[in-house]
Predict the structure.
Amino acid sequence: MKIINSKQIKEWDQLTIKHQNISSWDLMERAVLKLTENIVNDIPSKAPIIIFCGKGNNGGDGLGVARELEKLGYKTLIYILKSENYSEDNLKNQQLLSSNELHFFNLNEELQLPENSVIIDAIFGIGINQPLDDDWNSIFNQIEKSNPTQIISIDLPSGFIADLPMQKYFPCCKSNKTYTFQVPKLGLLFPENQIYTDEFILLDIGLEQNVSNEFETDYYFIQKNDIQKFLKKISKFSHKGTFGHTLIIGGSLGKIGSIVLTAKAALKTGSGLVTTYTPQCGLNILQTNLIESMSLVDDSEKQIEYFPEIKIYQGVAVGMGMGQHPTTDANFINWIKNQKQPLVIDADALNCLAKQKDCFTLIPQDSVLTPHPKELQRLIGEWENDFEKLEKVKKLAVFHQLTFIIKGFYTAVITSDGKTYFNSTGNWGMATAGSGDTLSGIIASLIGQGYNSSEASILGVYLHGLAGDFAVKKIHPHSLIASNISDFISEAYFYLDSNF
Ligand SMILES: NC(=O)C1=CN([C@@H]2O[C@H](COP(=O)(O)OP(=O)(O)OC[C@H]3O[C@@H](n4cnc5c(N)ncnc54)[C@H](O)[C@@H]3O)[C@@H](O)[C@H]2O)[C@H](O)CC1
Ligand SMILES: [K+]
């Protein structure tokens, strides 16, 4: 699914109105019914509800929801911003409510807000592209101080600018949940913006799909149907060779577990064969814990000193648990400089590269880098905000023809053509030791199965998150450990095979 900016969404509205031969009111009514249908499941029937409405169409949505909730027997208190210029559909919605139900407010006003209410925030949506005036803080503070049981935002938390970096001092309503129309808004996917809403839920309001090709974008939100489009079909004549031979290089004394996790993930993802390359101390651990894998060992007991020949392998991951012994570091750099085939580069291999000047020139093209935030910072330096971080990474990805995976709640895959794919699967339980090792094994396995680096990364990140989502149906997120993720890759595949 494409992620488009606010201006494009407005064009999309207009094109939908034209192609479907409907009015803007009809579209708003669709939004209102979808919203109401969902909101009623969020609120207890007797809960007091306060709906804050602005003067544009976001406010129009809020007024429409108020009307629908009243029809269903809910008691609502409606606050609407006093203004000279309401949008047409906003006014029409006001007229459908009796005038004594509407409380008009000014920014400097003390409002009488009952405590413990459900608040519906319909003041601003995608119509703003610059920060709200500081006076808005008084309204948002009063909302917060009224101790609401929950705050539900329509389309965006009011004051949130979807396509530009937010600064902490910009006035903005902070909500528990945001129902956003049709497509995710870019800023909602950035970790730095998690303070504005705990979660967003997409509401399909039937914007015309046939015209969405017209919108150019570098950003995508990856869901099941996107993944199904490029999943390879398996032939009954397939054999071990078809599914590739994956090599996992890493481990050091005390950190062999990370190689067990990576290798297990590669096997569960479907590699035909998996071989590990570790220091000698890894041999017994691997042969005992993962009998399906084959082990090669370095001459050294505690850390890798000589890196292997990799030509016979179709997928290679390097760096997990590798440590940063000076000999390992020096020999890794000498080795990587001479490699031609794409690698999945993780953990200490990234830390080692970060110590080199112009490190990206040493990496074979089409490789996949999987840094967590600290590793990314070591590689690319500081960033001001998540927009800048993404831009920096995008430039490097294009210039050096690499794929970067920036891990987070919405993990982002930045490919060598400058596109960013945000992942929709995964949960907080997956923030656990070894989760990243598992991801590297999945991606190396997929490259071994013939997916290119971008496809393997997008699919890998999705599968990893999905396996984690199935895992937390059986295991509490607190108790989820990395090896559980691999145990549920099979469930993830079944889900992708299915059409529900
Ligand atoms: N396809 C859809 O997504 C649909 C969206 N709907 C809803 O409509 C809003 C967008 O409506 P719009 O009228 O364009 O904008 P807003 O209501 O967000 O606000 C406009 C209002 O605010 C004023 N304004 C702009 N910037 C500022 C500022 N910095 N400070 C103060 N005031 C500002 C501006 O002048 C306008 O008066 C969308 O989010 C959805 O909720 C439809 O209902 C269905 C289709
Ligand atoms: K809003």
Observations:
- The chain has a mean pLDDT of 95.
- Residues 227-497 form a domain with the UDP-N-acetylmuramoyl-L-alanine:D-glutamate ligase fold (CATH 3.40.1190.20).
- DSSP finds 16 helices and 17 strands in the chain.
